[in-house]
Amino acid sequence: MTQNQQAIYDARQLGTGKVLTLGLQHMFAMFGATVLVPVITGLSMSATLLFAGVGTLVFHLLTKMKVPAFLGSSFAFLGGYAAIVSMGEAQGLSVSESLPYACIGVFSAGIIYFILAGLFAAYGARKVMRFFPPIVTGPIIIAIGLTLSGSAIQNCNQNWWIAILAILIIIVCNIWGRRMIKIIPILLGVLGSYFVAACFGLCDFSAVKEAAWVGVPFKWENTAFHVFANPNWGLVLSAIIAIVPISLATVMEHIGDMCAISSTTGINYLEDPGLHRTLMGDGLATMLASLFGAPANTTYGENTGVLNITKVYDPFVIRVAACFAIILSFCPKFSALISCMPAATIGGVSLVLYGMISAVGVRNIVENQVDFTKSRNVIVMALILVLAIGIKYGANDAVSLGFTTLSGLAVAALVGVILNAVLPGKDYEFGSRDEGDKSVDFEINPSLRK
């Protein structure tokens, strides 16, 4: 047994106090990014925390309790949520009424994880991923960030000084921070700008005073189940078509995370318990979360950074962090405190995150050395970007097909996948470049993986 493998079983020998502290550190590492997704989208904060914890425990169960991974809110689906809310508002629905339809789309994306897990188990990653090359996933990821940029600017317009402060804190912590500071720049950016805004009287804490200390983390009307009491089938179909293609990018992100955790611990989790099991765990966690009005889940790179710093790889510590998240989800007062966050803080942090998403798409293309001397690659990327951005910021914000309405992102994804399949000259082979295969990664600090 190697030293790293031995470390897997060492955590509980440290004592209860240190194990609890390590668990809290993992929870705070994921916290800044996880709570930001419901703040941006309007999804339930309490449900987000609950299913981050539950999803992590489900993932550990399906992966034989072997993989030290924490699952938190995925930023990859932000564009999907925004697109469905926009379509819902065009049909007279409020944000809270539209979000459950988006959750149905996310649930459907979770099913893709199971399908791909079966294909990976049967045929191997190399044969399956050739249908989803970087020339398709890269531009889609770029488009996700660019189509979201408008909402970030609108929030920044509420108070640019607070937004700029949030951005500066993130940059300073991420570039010059050490150890834990470098792991949680998003959380520190949120807390720092939030604190300054509160000091200047820019926050209304009346909702915090009125909120109960203990409560149920989700409401029935915010769940995906509520949609079927009186469904808008056109919007259901649009949500599925718009959001399911995003799962292709998050599967790549998942593979990168598994490779990173394997590299950190020195244990090949892609072989044991196997990539098919980790994909099923991620997919099931996402499906459960979406049913109850929480964001899609994904394995978190921030927690991989914590593993790298502490050298304690016992998955039990991650499960302790998951239990802390579940406990916090039953405190409405805590959720209200997060909901009082100034729009400018959200805007500043979102500006960085949305830009990072687009930058990751560029990184995916560059590190896979996509050949743009080939006309077929130029055409595929050009149409994906122009359709996604053009339709988003066009007069109607969507394309009507008579029986349904599709967002720009959905149209771009469908066109990209189809064009890549039919045009000659495909040259991508998954597994030929390790750096390229792992380059789809939405974490704020990729350097921690090295």
Number of strands: 4
Please tell me what the overall shape is. globular
Q: What low-confidence regions span 5 or more consecutive residues with pLDDT below 50?
A: 1-7, 440-450
Rounded to the nearest angstrom, the radius of gyration is 21 Å
Mean pLDDT: 81
Helicity range? 55-70%
Give the biggest sheet: 2 strands, antiparallel
Please, how many helices?
Answer: 21
| Distance from first to last alpha carbon | 23 Å
Topology as a string of helices (H) and strands (E): HHHEHHHHHHHHHHHEHHHHHEEHH
* SSE class: mainly alpha
Which strand order do you get reading across the main beta sheet? Answer: 1-2
DSSP strand (E) fraction? Answer: under 5%
What is the oligomer described by this structure?
single chain
